[in-house]
Amino acid sequence: MAYLLHIESTSTVCSVAVSKDSELMALKELNNGYTHAENVHLFIQQVLAEASLNASDLQAVCVSSGPGSYTGLRIGFSAAKGLAYALQIPMISVDTLKVLSVAAMAKVKSNAVYCPMMDARRMEVYTAAYDEQFINLLPVQALVLNESSITRFDFNKPTYVFGDGMPKAKELLQSLAHVSFIDDIAASASSMIPLAFEKYKARQFEDVAYVEPNYLKEFFFTSTKK
Q1: pLDDT value at position 35?
Q2: DSSP bridge partners of 179
Q3: What would the pLDDT profile of 7-16 be if each residue is shown by its tens digit?
Q4: What is the predicted pLDDT for the residue at 222?
Q5: What span, in angstroms and rounded, lies between the C-alpha atoms of 105 and 212?
Q6: In the chain, what are the domains?
């Protein structure tokens, strides 16, 4: 039996869960802009209390690894690394686009292609494509949406597109015969659980000292001209 803590902070959703093996025990999340700095440690305390656990009961901590918000990723990784180091427990990371796909697969339950899309500003999205066994059909990438790039999603079989980047792709993707859209799929710590538990059983742990988020794109700091 393993108690795992899950931290999802890659988007506007601040989400924390605790699980026993593959079973959700407690979940706390808020989608109210980027409130991770104020809420992630509070949510950790709340889910542990709801599950009647102490931090010392945890066997591992899991974090959503990106792509996503630069600041959100930094906060999530800092919290996960801090707990893993302080409690001397393993740290697990799971791909955020796979986390979104877990939520979509639970909703559709179909033999199909699953294409998560996260908003990367302007007409760009972070995206990938998986089958129902998580075989990668399109590598994780930052993709500029246009009439040429959407042909990558023509898999000639039922294909579901979802995530907060989906709305700006919808008009272009409607020209593809096999594409359907799933609304209201957001990143949640609860969707991390099956992915994290499989990694826990396989002992696929991160090196806490060296692991970094998958930013996918470089982050540029800008300063205001005086």
Answers
A1: 86
A2: 159
A3: 999 999 999 9
A4: 40
A5: 27
A6: 3-95+187-201 (3.30.420.40), 97-182 (3.30.420.40)
